[in-house]
Write a structure and sequence with these properties.
Strand content of chain A: 25-35%
CATH architecture of the largest domain in chain B: 3-Layer(aba) Sandwich
CATH topology of the largest domain in chain B: Rossmann fold
Oligomer: heterodimer
Order of helices and strands of chain A: EEEHEEHEHHHHEHEHEEHH
Helix content of chain B: 25-40%
Strand content of chain B: 25-35%
Largest interface: A-B, 28 and 26 residues
Radius of gyration of chain A: 19 Å
CATH superfamily of the largest domain in chain B: P-loop containing nucleotide triphosphate hydrolases
Largest sheet of chain A: 6 strands, mixed
Structural class of chain B: alpha/beta
Shape of chain A: globular
Largest sheet of chain B: 6 strands, mixed
Helix content of chain A: 25-40%
């Protein structure tokens, strides 16, 4: 399979302090890659580095992030902005917070889509409703007409994930997309992302501290600690038979449901 | 038979907005907690778990029903009258401490309030910090100067300082990394065992609750819908809602 996104010896620093150190990995087309680790391990910084979202004081000090023959940290801002959305999309822990509270969800999504392609509002509504329906939303029209505060946090998160797909990006970067959700909604969000991969062959990097989410979704997993990759491999291998001491400790600390007697 | 440490009788809470629109957050909840028992309260956001906790800690007044602590009706008393018996640990330790006072001040406050001298309190704070695995100089640190896990240890020291009979943990480990969560859970079970404290453990992580608690209560839309030993609830849930909840765990 072709590599669509490739990190080569990436080091990222905030105000001179490295938070990601010499990290290399690649994402293949249509693959779901999980990145796990504890707070401060640098896992979110990995995604932000690709999107140019490190903020003031944050820079990729060494290494390349290759996407379709382009090195993302070297791209001028306007070129990166053209890629953000139609090629690389990102979703956050609180998708609702990315919306303006006083405009309807539909109006804001129309604005986002028309920034990248010529489309009439009527065509947009049709396209958005069709996508929401495919992703198993019950009442697409009502969602588009709603204001963000009229939808629950879980619904808003699912809408945020769906919205990222309006421009049909080839890579979806998801930073803790299910961490603020109740288990039942979390499961729906995970199923939504799996459906997206199935329908659009989108490659997904999911950064999370929830091992259960990774087990349910990811083909491969990277374990990070203190800015470095501690272990990586097929999800099953890493989760069931960790090699590194740190990974063993991490897996042992995850509470597991005992579903069978004596298990 | 000994009196349970906590008895809730048909507790109800109706929130009113602008004095009119009503929301029934807790709808006739009754349960007991025996001395030294650890009871888990699980359910989704908005199911009323924290409202129950806040009523027990007397931070909220119930609309109806009674709360008995150690057999005594405390439904109408203020929080400061029961702080010796009930202490609470919250989800965000940093927010639960006064940002302008040291952790030592926070931990020792209840002891000062019951009339101990400053030097006694200082010595006791040091012992408490040791009991929760923190170095003595943490007494002089401020909440923002320590990590989330360390701050939660300090919050536990603060809660157990006065030797309460009941500890309410409202998502006390939810904001922590799993390895830190495992350490905090170990610390809590050791302290409960050593001091014979009972615990109401509010948690949305069902696996954690199954492993940590003696008994589980499942809350949905303000009601307790199912109750029993953790393995029984997880392995053979009787209510549709509980089944859905267990099935959703990834």
């Amino acid at each position: 399979m072709n590599k669509i996104l490739q990190y080569v010896n990436v080091t990222t620093s905030y105000n001179g302090t490295p938070v990601v150190r010499d990290v290399s990995f690649s994402l293949r087309e249509g693959e779901i890659l999980g990145v796990v680790g504890e707070s401060g391990s640098g896992k979110s910084t990995l995604l932000k580095a690709a999107m140019g979202l490190l903020g003031p004081g944050g820079v990729v000090t060494r290494g390349d992030i290759w996407f379709k023959e382009r090195n993302l940290p070297d791209l001028p801002e306007n070129e990166l902005r053209r890629l953000s959305g139609p090629e690389l999309a990102m979703i956050f822990q609180h998708a609702g917070a990315s919306f303006c509270p006083i405009r309807s969800v539909g109006a804001q999504l129309f604005e986002a889509v028309s920034a990248h392609e010529e489309i009439t509002e009527a065509d947009f509504r049709e396209k958005a409703a069709a996508l929401l329906k495919k992703l198993r939303f019950e009442d697409a029209a009502r969602i588009l007409e709603s204001y963000p505060f009229e939808l629950s946090g879980g619904m808003m998160q699912r809408v945020g994930i769906a919205a990222a797909m309006l421009l049909n990006p080839s890579v979806l970067l998801a930073d803790e997309p299910t961490s603020a959700l109740d288990v039942s909604v979390q499961k729906q969000a995970v199923e939504e992302m799996l459906l997206i991969r199935e329908m659009y062959h989108t490659a997904i990097i999911i950064v999370t501290h929830n091992i259960g989410v990774v087990r349910a979704m990811a083909d491969r997993v990277i374990v990070m600690k203190d800015g470095r990759i501690m272990e990586s491999g097929d999800t099953r291998d890493v989760l069931e038979h960790p090699v590194q001491e740190y990974t063993k400790k991490l897996m042992a600390a995850v509470p597991r449901l005992r579903l069978r007697r004596g298990a | 038979m000994t009196t349970p440490i906590l008895q809730l009788q048909n507790l109800k809470k109706i929130f009113t907005r602008n004095g009119q629109s009503e929301f029934l957050a807790v709808d006739g909840v009754s349960f007991d907690i025996s001395a030294g028992e650890c009871v888990g309260l699980i359910g989704e956001s908005g199911s009323g778990k924290s409202t129950v906790a806040n009523m027990i800690a007397r931070l909220l007044d119930p609309t109806e029903g009674r709360i008995l602590l150690d057999g005594e009706d405390v439904t109408d008393v203020k929080a400061r009258q029961i702080f010796r018996t009930v202490q609470m640990i919250f989800q965000s330790p940093q927010e639960s401490f006064d940002p302008r006072r040291t952790l030592g001040d926070g931990i020792g406050e209840s002891l000062l309030n019951v009339g101990r001298s400053r030097s006694q309190v200082r010595a006791e704070v040091e012992r408490l910090l040791e009991a929760v695995g923190l170095p003595p100089d943490f007494a002089r640190r401020y909440p923002h100067e320590v990590s989330g896990g360390q701050c939660q240890r300090a919050a536990i020291a603060r809660a157990v300082a006065i030797h309460p009979k009941l500890l309410i943990c409202d998502e006390a480990t939810s904001a922590l990394d799993v390895t830190v969560q495992a350490e905090i859970v170990d610390l809590l079970s050791r302290l409960m065992r050593e001091r014979g404290m009972a615990c109401l453990f509010i948690c949305h992580d069902i696996a954690l609750a199954q492993n940590f608690c003696d008994r589980l209560l499942v809350m949905y839309r303000g009601k307790i819908v199912e109750e029993g030993p953790p393995d029984e609830i997880v392995q053979s849930p009787k209510q549709e809602y509980t089944k859905l909840l267990i099935d959703s765990v990834l």
